[in-house]
Amino acid sequence: QVQLVESGGGLVQAGGSLRLSCAASGRTYVMGWFRQAPGKEREFVGAIAWSGITWNPLYADSVKGRFTISRDNAKNMGYLQMDNLKPEDTAVYSCAAASRVGAPTAPYEYNYWGQGTQVTVSS
User: Fold this and answer.
1) Taking burial as the number of CB atoms within 10 A of a residue's CB, which of 13, 16, 47, 58 is the most buried?
2) Alpha carbon distance 19, 112 (integer Å)
């Protein structure tokens, strides 16, 4: 069993930065980040997966070059560093985890989810 808790959300001006944290209990080999804005479906942000040798990140085109996913394996913690934030990034951000996924961009592939944290970017 895996439990996930996100933190680090808040209000920031456009162009600013936030770092979200995802504390995990239990072992995870794939961690994904998703966001959902009001009235919209959940959207893939990025993921990081263990290849057996190293951790490999994957990013949605909408955040590529602005967001960075990383892990602290000793703490079993995942991070989403968000730079150059835009108003359209405003959403509830959630981390998700699984031992293995076939399609890391698909929410249904993940077994465990955090409670979500609100990110609001003002113009």
Assistant:
1) 47
2) 21
